[in-house]
């Protein structure tokens, strides 16, 4: 299994170059992808929002030749990788639970969920300083891993061209969010403009609720772990959550308020979804 040197500072971890190869475990074998354009690079020190998004193509030998049988051939893929608490539930596990429920009359929701092809963790080697820190702070210190996944590449809201498409996407997001709360019992906890994406399929555009790094099972909303209190992205966080007196837990209504703020800011700051109004 791959390991990372815990002495690397966080900004060194995210250094990469276009054309580099990245190998990880997939279906009990090594799978290699070639890195392309970096779509998102985290800001140093931004707690809870430190995932890097890189466009990738599968570089395995099966992807070449007429008789290719690579299960990723022709798919638009991204590598999402960054630091995560080692006990935090991965996006893949949340979505796996959703897909097991999304059958029959619930199958419609699959159009509004991201497709994650695989997920993997790369642990840090244990150095004495980290072990001592964990002992000192006990529950106040959370061990970290480098968590990665290969996902379908989706389109941003700026890809929409009409008001009708925009209205449909936000309707999709609200319906999907309610389904998550009612059936698999999940709260997303980080709805923002960047996390509402678009999937175009068979000539139709669907709203997709993306980025589940801060999601939580409803049964765990009372947890006091520091990382589980990281919810939302300013300025989309609910008003109550931005108070210094707020101690949780995160509620269903907080996510709905975030959807409202996304719509509000798009309406006030943009003349169209891909053209921002000039600053006064």
TrEMBL record:
InterPro entries: Kinase-like_dom_sf, Pkinase_fungal, Prot_kinase_dom. GO terms for molecular function: ATP binding; protein kinase activity. Coiled coil: none annotated. It holds the Pfam family Pkinase_fungal. Residues 24-280 form the Protein kinase domain. This is Protein kinase domain-containing protein. The lineage of its organism: Eukaryota, Fungi, Dikarya, Basidiomycota, Agaricomycotina.
